[in-house]
Specification:
It is built from 1 helix and no strands. The chain is mainly alpha-helical. The protein has one domain (about 10-70). The protein starts with 11 loop residues before the first helix and ends with a helix.
Length: about 70
């Protein structure tokens, strides 16, 4: 077997610092992505669903009213 010199050994402390640095930048990117998704995707979708739900409730009200009024026509 080949003898491993000290300079070639895996330095756990440096590796841990590198992983922490990578995780921080990944977290920063994910926060930015979340903000973009909320603003650009979810807000218009929620607005559209709000107006579609109001229309659906009005159609449901008219349907129930028609079913209840039908015997009395």
């Amino acid at each position: 077997m080949r003898e491993v010199r000290r300079s070639e050994r895996f330095d756990a402390h440096k590796a841990k610092r590198f992983v922490n640095r990578v995780n921080k930048s990944a977290r920063r990117g994910s926060v930015e992505l979340e903000a973009v998704l909320i603003t650009a995707v979810m807000f218009p979708l929620a607005t559209a669903l709000y107006y579609l739900a109001a229309r659906a409730f009005s159609v449901m009200y008219l349907t129930i009213a028609g079913i209840l009024e039908w015997p009395y026509l």
